[in-house]
């Protein structure tokens, strides 16, 4: 199996970087936060819940307020410091999704909000999630829909393709959007010991003050977007940003602002 070492390094560096981690919390998460009510409403009755890849603790806090006993876990000390600032009463643990420091069958539910696609060894992470879940426990995850349905990813990927330097490539990684595809999600999750019970699309978006803000969110609020843009020669970087802004102007106009739709996919699965 591929080890995705370059990708692992990019993700580890990205989530421990001041600009990217703060950029995610202050810009990117406006869209991720729209999934929170859907995640919370799909976790069953009160019980012990692991919020894996918890980042800034936005989902951890919502689950705690809904009455669950929640532990938030993330491998980035920087993201956890945002979580502890935002939700001082929360319980947070520094841990890698591929090697969880919890006992077997400890949790009634595991939630992973926009996290699994950042993990290099996803079969290992899924086997860890399956291990810490009680039998018939619930696994709920979200991920971003791909450019087949996502207007934001159509705009971003097409602009990089049209204006990027072809020598700038991403390290080999698992397909970033695979869990948003029903067939792929079902196949991967059933192979990992889960039965998919439900998959639905969620309407997430950003309201942008300026058309230029979309490229800014990708460059300074996401490790992969940041890598892809910051590795570009200056002229290519500027051309990509101009193309993104132009497409925002023509496709996402909403009164005196711009609404950029970035649909997400929610999967609810049960451990066999
Ligand atoms: C896109 S953010 C999601 C944060 C939050 N769950 C949300 O919904 O906004 C992804 C998070 O996954 C974490 N992460 C990435 N790879 C990880 C790994 N191997 N183990 C644990 N956490 C990881 C990052 O540090 C980051 O906080």
Automatic annotation (TrEMBL):
<dbReference type="GO" id="GO:0008168">
    <property type="term" value="F:methyltransferase activity"/>
</dbReference>
<dbReference type="Pfam" id="PF08241">
    <property type="entry name" value="Methyltransf_11"/>
</dbReference>
<protein>
    <submittedName>
        <fullName>Class I SAM-dependent methyltransferase</fullName>
        <ecNumber>2.1.1.-</ecNumber>
    </submittedName>
</protein>
<dbReference type="InterPro" id="IPR029063">
    <property type="entry name" value="SAM-dependent_MTases_sf"/>
</dbReference>
<dbReference type="InterPro" id="IPR013216">
    <property type="entry name" value="Methyltransf_11"/>
</dbReference>
<feature type="domain" description="Methyltransferase type 11">
    <location>
        <begin position="50"/>
        <end position="141"/>
    </location>
</feature>
<keyword id="KW-0489">Methyltransferase</keyword>
<dbReference type="GO" id="GO:0032259">
    <property type="term" value="P:methylation"/>
</dbReference>
<keyword id="KW-0808">Transferase</keyword>
């Amino acid at each position: 199996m591929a080890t995705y070492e370059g990708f692992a390094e990019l993700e580890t560096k990205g989530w421990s970087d001041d600009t990217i981690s703060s950029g995610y919390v202050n810009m990117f998460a406006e869209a991720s936060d729209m999934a929170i009510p859907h995640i919370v409403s799909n976790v069953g009755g009160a019980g012990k819940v692991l919020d894996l890849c918890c980042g800034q603790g936005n989902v951890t806090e919502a689950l705690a307020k809904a009455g669950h006993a929640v532990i938030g876990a993330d491998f980035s000390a920087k993201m956890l410091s945002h979580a502890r600032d935002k939700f001082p009463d929360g319980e947070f643990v520094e841990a890698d999704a591929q090697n969880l420091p919890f006992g077997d069958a400890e949790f009634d539910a595991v939630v992973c909000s926009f996290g699994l696609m950042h993990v290099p060894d996803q079969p290992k992470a899924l086997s860890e999630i399956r291990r810490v879940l009680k039998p018939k426990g619930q696994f709920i995850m979200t991920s971003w829909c791909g450019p087949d349905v996502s207007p934001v990813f159509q705009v971003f990927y097409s602009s990089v393709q049209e204006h990027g330097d072809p020598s700038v490539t991403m390290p080999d990684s698992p397909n970033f959007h695979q869990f948003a595809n029903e067939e792929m999600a079902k196949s991967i999750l059933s192979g990992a010991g889960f039965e998919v019970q439900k998959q639905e699309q969620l309407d997430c978006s950003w309201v942008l003050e300026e058309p230029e803000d979309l490229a800014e969110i990708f460059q300074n609020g996401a490790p992969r977007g940041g890598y892809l843009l910051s590795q570009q020669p200056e002229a290519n970087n500027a051309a990509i940003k101009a193309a993104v802004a132009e497409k925002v102007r023509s496709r996402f106009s909403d009164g005196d602002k711009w609404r950029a739709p970035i649909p997400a996919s929610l999967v609810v699965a049960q451990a066999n």
